[in-house]
Each structure stands twice: as C-alpha cells, then as structure tokens.
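Re-run with default settings, no changes from the original entry. Doing this only to confirm the output is reproducible before filing.
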Amino acid sequence: SEPQLGGLFVDSMPLRALVGLNGYVTKKLSLLAKVGYGNSFHDEGPSFNSGVGQIELGYTITPNILVALGFLRDYAPAFYSNFFVENRSYLRGQFRFLQRCAVELSGGYHYIEFAEFDPIAADPAGATDGNFTVVSHKERRDHQLSAHLQFDADITRWLAISVGYELRAVITDFSLTSTVNNPGTPGAVDFVDAGDYVRHQIYASLNVKY
C-alpha cells in the first residue's frame, strides 16, 4: 500500500454528527443511546471517516445509588499519526449521602487504534542526514485500563469541593526509536521512547456554582 505521509502537526477540521435519546425506560432503568458519523478532514494523510456512538444502561438501585454500564466509540486528533479511535467499555457508579455529599467511581477498558503512520516515508530526507525516527509498528494498537474515584461535597448552595484520583495504564509493545547524528560527535545516538506507562493523578478543586 502507499505510505501514509500525515502524522505530525497536520491541520484538521473534525466533524461529528450524532442523534440519540436519553431517558428512563422504566422507573429504575435508564438508557442513553447515540449514533452518528465522524470525519477528521486532515489536510494530509489518512482521515477518520466512520461511525461514532455511545450506548449506556443505567439502573437506579435506590434514589441515592446509581450504576451504569456502557460502550463508547469515538475519535480524536493526535500529534502522532493524525488521529486515534477509542473503543471503550466502562462501568460507573454514583452514591449520594448526607444530602450534600457524593462519591463517583468508574473503571474502563480502552482499545485504542491509531491511524497508520510511517515516519521514514513522511521524512525521507531524515534518513540521509542521520536524524530520523522509526516505529516498531506502523499500525499502533494500545490496550488501556482506567479507574476514577471522586468525592464531592456541597459546602453551601453556591460553593463545593471535589477531591479525586485517576489511574491510567497503557499496555502496548509500541515504541519509537529516534536516531540523532550531531555534527562533531562521533557515531549516532539512539533514543527509545516506549509507548507503555502507568499514570497516577490526584486532584482537588473548589467549585463555584451560579
């Protein structure tokens, strides 16, 4: 196949058009369903051109306890390879107590598909001057796990606080190897950037409502 030359700082005009519904099917069972079309309209290289959507089933156990199971398919522009497609399955829950406090908990599995990209084809001159990047796979595929825990408390009608924790684990064998050949320095130096990582994030915010 022809090399895909997009991938680094390529302009785009993302478009999404969706229709759907959101409401209660019964007194306890709710449904969110959206389906539509997306196109990233990148100036160079591949563009996303496919369906997007989301479906979620929620169940109200008590007036203060809600659980939901869902699936989402969407895309987003990316610095590397123009765009990526996210296929996410998730489970979330919400628990309210003391009339002013709430706890939200969610977990998800993300299958991420990047557009095909070959840095050598995008920058053939780099291979001749000794400064170039190669990738382990032209079609990058990642598996990701995520978790989110958040506590909210209303101090007054217009003031609230939030404290949360997020986990993101990327599981992939994808890597980039950048070869740098500086004038005056004997031999080229390779820098390897592995795609997998685990990120922990703790945050807090003061929220003003009006």
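The radius of gyration is 22 Å. The chain is about 5% helix and 65% strand.
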